[in-house]
Amino acid sequence: MNGLPAGCENVPLGGKSKNMTKFSIVIPTWKNLEYLDLCYKGIIRNSSAGHEIVVFFNEYDAACGRWAEGKRVIFDKSAENLGVCGAVNRAAKMVTT
Known about the structure:
By secondary structure, the protein is α/β, with parallel strands linked by helices. Helices cover 32% and strands 21% of the residues. It contains three helices and three strands, in the order βαβαβα. It has helices spanning 33-46, 62-68, 83-92, and strands at 23-30, 51-58, 74-77. The protein has a three-stranded parallel β-sheet, sandwiched between helices. Strand 2, helix 2 (62-68) and strand 3 (74-77) form a beta-alpha-beta unit. The chain is globular.
């Protein structure tokens, strides 16, 4: 076990290896996959520093799961909207840096 939440053990992180991970990017989201996708693509395209991306989905549904599939993210979810503070707090618990 590498300290990641269950199901995230094989998620490739930013940088060349987990040891290169220097910081975490926490993204709370609620029903805005279009903007989340722009944010994610911008981070991947423009960051050469070692990082991990942690996403928390408020009101998770099947579309959220499809979005996260194959992406280099660690994520958690809630069936209800916990609000931005609740989402950030839950995501922060998953940070490994």
